[in-house]
């Protein structure tokens, strides 16, 4: 028993030695910038010369402005892409799992948007939905001239276009994730259901969908985090946050305050910290809901 204990400790030490370099690298490239941003958020840092301590002034300015709450509203509106993405992704995954005709080709086609640069995809949608773009040319060609509008010129139409773009780019990732979840379901479960006389739709709604709930919850959690941290290239290439701030998100405002409207680095750091807190709140809530769902499944 003592020998086994020593062996286990030795294996644990070897394991930690293998992952220690990765942990140190992550702490260096992630931890130090986060700590620096937190410290600088209490200053009027301009990136160069100014670096005076101002306490909570940056946070008071941010939370006291209607602009911040408008940005948060935009972020929350853009979260609408997640349920649409999940629904289409599940349909795609079921079709791929059933190996419909041409499923190997479709599997590649669905995933292509995921490997293309978000900036390129954003510019592509900006061209497609431009006033003289292919979408409006098509609408005018079939006599729907009143529908040929400046899609990205108003927040009322630009936000749905951005949501459509986000859904399109994430279908492949969502489909592959759900397909992996379906593939993890033991075939014996389906065989037993067939022996009991369960038809295709009964198996789909009574076995497949309930058993991929964990996969879907994981997808939703990761998509929420992604939507708060990775929308910058889409906003930059499609609308630049305009018109005004109607399509601007929090991460894009961080860029604006840092490099466009002046070197307000301290203000941007405070905005980054607030964004981190928002993400942590969403993550904690979703993890609790996920645990509750797992307990119900057990």
Describe the structure.
There is one protein chain. This protein is an all-alpha fold. Helices cover 76% and strands 0% of the residues. It contains 14 helices and no strands. It has helices at 2-40, 57-64, 66-78, 81-97, 103-115, 118-128, 134-141, 155-183, 187-195, 200-211, 213-229, 232-238, 250-260, 265-297. Helix 4 (81-97) packs parallel to helix 8 (155-183) and helix 11 runs antiparallel to helix 14. The chain is globular, with a radius of gyration of 24 Å. The model has no long low-confidence stretch (mean pLDDT 88).
Instruction: Report the major sheet.
Output: none
**Sequence stretches where pLDDT stays below 50 over 5 or more residues:** none
Using only C-alpha atoms, the radius of gyration works out to: 24 Å
- How many strand elements? 0
Distance between the termini: 35 Å
Beta fraction: under 5%
Query: How helical, in percent, are the residues?
Result: over 70%
Structural class: mainly alpha
Q: Give the overall silhouette.
A: globular
Elements, N to C (H/E): HHHHHHHHHHHHHH
Mean pLDDT over all positions: 88
Number of helices: 14
